[in-house]
Amino acid sequence: MGIRRLGYVGLDVTDIDAWTELLGRTLGVGVTADKIGSQEVLLAELDEFRYRLALYPAAEDVPRQIGWIVDSPAELDRLTRRLEEAGYPVADGTPEEAELRGATRLRWFTDPGGYRVELAVGEAKVRSAPARPADGGRGITGLGHLVLAGPALAELRDLYETVLEFRLTDYRAPGLYFYRCNRTHHSIALARADSPSIHHLELEHESLDDVGRSYDRALADEVPISISLGRHMNDKAISFYVRNPSGFHLEIGCGGIEVGDDWVPHDFGTSDVWGHHHTAANPFAGPTS
User: Which residues have CB under 8 Å from 123's CB, separation 6+?
Assistant: First the structure.
């Protein structure tokens, strides 16, 4: 497969201070200030790479880009041809954009929801490991997955499954699909909604104790916990969710399973083994949830 993993997500955000407080105080994530041209950006230090989450000060809270790491220049060229044949114009990123992402090559296109999707070759390691809170454990180890929702579900499914060659892992009625690009259960899930949005980003943690410590800090800091602690039925991850300053969810989780080539896609029915109680209506609730 040409795409190796989810590399990074960029967000336009209206409240940089609130994001910095959530990442630093509650989740133990440092941020580094940088610039791309005259545009300021804060880079969240989730792992040893330069960043996985970029925050751009803006007048509106909207996703800015979704970045996927591609195996090689040859695979980037091959995927570019597939995209163009499917009707997606592909453009090169600027040298400044490639440098910020630590990429040797960078291309992008616009998905059916209107979001900029980037394909990057290369990643830049800038630290042996990020600093973490003194309460023990590695804490966050990286960016796990994202869930995209929108009205163009069929088109998004065709893009990721047919054009970009992701593999369907499982699904749940009435319209929630989980896709993988490596052995991790899923790197992206796609769902139907009235308007395009990111439902959540998942921040991967080393252990259940790390998730628990983040949960304790969220309670102490009075961060809005939007979905309670629980275990998912399909990937078996244990997690809870917080409402971030841009209005969508961050999932704080660990323990998701890996799957092999012999995995058979199926409807996994009930959404959770236990827990994951929503403070608001679940937009993906199906008849069996």
Answer: 7, 49, 50, 69, 102, 103
Q: State residue 250 phi and psi, 5-degree precision.
A: -110, 125
What pLDDT does residue 288 have? 36
Q: DSSP assignment of 97-110, as one string?
A: HHHHHT-SEEEEEE
**Phi, psi (deg, nearest 5) at residue 235:** -100, 0
pLDDT at 287 over 60: no
Q: Cα–Cα distance between 10 and 67 in angstroms, integer?
A: 8
Number of domains the chain is built from: 2
Residue type, 207: S
Question: Residue 289 — very low, low, confident or very high, per pLDDT cuts 50/70/90?
Answer: very low
Q: Which pTM value belongs to this model?
A: 0.94
Looking at residues 259-266, what average pLDDT do you find?
96
229 and 179 fall within a common domain: yes
Q: Which amino acid is at 259?
A: V
Q: What is the CATH number of the domain that holds 77?
A: 3.10.180.10
Per-residue pLDDT of 120-139, as tens digits, reads: 999 888 887 787 777 766 78
- First-residue to last-residue Cα distance in the chain: 33
Does residue 170 share a domain with residue 79? no
The lowest-confidence range among 58-67, 140-149, 250-259, 278-287 is 278-287
Query: Measured between alpha carbons, how far is 232 from 43 in angstroms, rounded to an integer?
Result: 29
Q: 45 lies in which domain range?
A: 3-121
* Average pLDDT value over all residues in the chain: 93
Domain finish residue from 92, 121, 150: 121
7 contacts 108 by C-beta, under 8 angstroms: no
What's the average model confidence in pLDDT over 212-221? 95
Verify that 148 and 264 share a domain, yes or no: yes
C-alpha triplet 105, 106, 111: angle, nearest 5°: 155
